[in-house]
Amino acid sequence: MLKLFQMLKPYRVFISFVLVLVSIQTLSQLYLPTLMADIVDNGIVNGDIPYITKIGAFMLVVALITMVASILASFFSAKVAVGFGKVLRRRVFNHVENFSLHEFNQIGTSSLITRTTNDINQLQQVTIMLLRMLLAAPMMAIGGIIMAVSKDAKLSLVFVVAIPILILTISLIAIKGMPLFKALQKKLDHLNLVFREYLTGIRVIRSFNRENYEMKRYDKINNDFMDTATTVNKIMVSLMPIMMIILNFSTIAILWFGSIRISNGGMQVGDLMAFIQYGMQIMFSFIMVSIVFVMIPRAQVSSTRINEVLEMKFEIKDPIKQKNNKNKQGYIAFNHVNFSYPGAEQAAISDLTFDAKPGEVTAVLGGTGSGKSSLINLIPRFYDVTSGSILIDEVDIRDMSQADLRDKIGLTPQKATLFTGTVAENIRYGKQDASDEEVIHAATVAQANGFIESMEGSYNASITQGGSNVSGGQKQRLAIARTLVKRPEIYLFDDSFSALDFKTEATLRDALSQEVKKATVIIVAQRVATVMDADRIIVLNEGKTAGIGTHKELMSNCNVYREIVSSQLSEEEIA
Beta-strand (E) ranges in 159-206? Predict the structure, then answer.
């Protein structure tokens, strides 16, 4: 947790203000009981009205100073805590941006969301409490003990019994609560995961009438979370009654023994009243400490979870000495590439070697799980090869910066993803400074202009989260337009035509062939008709190369390719 609090350095001035204001507030509170004792013993007993008025006015001034200091301390501590939360969220977001797909899978999307929201909120709250109470509680406790001893040293022995009991109670509750807080945060992750799966899979759930099953599944996780939260709250809530019992018994003891001291002439009534106030201040300072100790275990768990994210080392890093060949553009070479997913028993790609050049279309074909998407993911370095090398423009991609590498590439992923905003904003995601003409041209080539024009608002029409207000084929065409507007050196289409009908796909491929003549194109597809005209077809089978060549060459020398063709085309179409 201390590592994270180092991010408070930009707020040092505000923290100093808070500490000064808290000190003024605490000292003022410590001074008020003494003034009250003076009024009782020197004013009320003697009937000295001017003295009562004078000290009473002074008490009002001190109370006013206490109030102003308290308000300002609350304001600045809130400003520091919210600023700390902002800095921490930004640091986590920037760090997560550099994660590889493997690192995302390690932590999980739902857990990352919980850590960025709930966990950081926990740290914000404990920051406010620490700023307001960490200095005030010790000052009030120590100052209260000193003032109480100065009033009557013998009566102060009451605290010798009460304070150790308080400390023991706080320690036991904190020790018991820590493991439960860890379990609570993990169960919150699981709760968010189940709820997120329900929202994203609502169509599948309804189509299979699994609402009741999902409800029972969510209720089970929700009840488990509730049981743990209830147990935690029972432990933490028990702290306040115990503290109040100790406080009340301490007050009774002070009154009991104080009355004896007054009857013996060893103490004045005003001093006893001040002593009671100091006793309450001492006890309340420990209550303040207990509140902080209640929050610290949960904040400690949250800080550990955030540190897990911030301390996670990147598997894919930029090289210290970066290389870039500007003389060549779009040349790709796979040299004996092998790749296995972390923890997998079998390689996803084995000994793959091929070249792709500008002006050529390279198609990748194969059955489900043959390694087609894995091949595509290796080119922009979403994963690193296990062995072998991938060269772009005769430079190993591991020797290039990720920004330079991905600047050369335009990727249309297998699952088209759209963002909340307008149609034009989604297409411009590929090139922020694209003109209206470039946006319209890219949409026209992608065969998207027709349905865009029919939408209310045309290119200013709104796209909802995830593109849920457009069809699958429309999403794919918008994703293709987003890639085309970038005009990269290398186009990667990962099964990007699967949701299109044959007529639209054929028209799109014809328009696309004219648009990307000078670029390198790699297309992953399931349909033979999509890849038949490619300059080179790579046939994958269980991660291995079953054949490389044109359609005619593969029909004569590749059994796997012939099987795929015969399963999709009739004999007349093949002929």
Answer: none
Domains and CATH numbers, the chain: 2-310 (1.20.1560.10), 321-408+488-575 (3.40.50.300), 418-486 (3.40.50.300)
- Say what the pLDDT of residue 229 is: 87
The encoded tokens of residue 152 equal: 């009557």
- Count of C-beta atoms within a 10 Å radius of residue 440: 21
Enclosing H/E stretch for 441:
helix 436-445
| 301 closest CA partner among 410, 182, 427, 126 | 182
Residue 309: other Cβ atoms inside 10 A:
19
Helices (H), 98-208: 101-107, 109-114, 120-133, 136-151, 157-200, 202-207
pTM of the model: 0.71
Chain centroid to Cα 158, Å, comes to 49
CA distance linking residue 426 with residue 421, whole number of Å:
7
78 close to 14: Cβ distance less than 8 angstroms: no
H/E element, 243: helix 239-263
User: What pLDDT does 573 receive?
Assistant: 59
**CA 466 vs CA 113, 192, 398, 415, 475: distances in Å:** 17, 19, 32, 11, 9
Give the model's confidence band at 362: pLDDT under 50 very low, under 70 low, under 90 confident, else very high.
Answer: very high
pLDDT digits (tens, 9 = 90+) for 260-279: 888 887 778 777 888 888 88
User: What rounded mean pLDDT belongs to the chain?
Assistant: 84
> Which has the closest alpha carbon to 352: 371, 367, 377?
371
Token readout for 282 is 């001492």
pLDDT at 497 over 70: yes
Tokens 């400490």 found at: 289
The number of angstroms, rounded, from the C-alpha of 23 to the middle of its chain's C-alpha atoms is 36
Ranges assigned E (strand) in 347-399: 349-356, 361-366, 387-392, 395-396
Answer whether 433's CB lies under 8 Å from 462's CB: no
Which sign, positive or negative, has the C-alpha torsion 334, 335, 341, 346?
positive
Residue of higher predicted confidence among 203 and 474:
474
Q: Which amino acid is at 167?
A: I
DSSP state letters, 251-320: HHHHHHHHHHHHHTTSS-HHHHHHHHHHHHHHHHHHHHHHHHHHHHHHHHHHHHHHHHHHTPPPSS---S
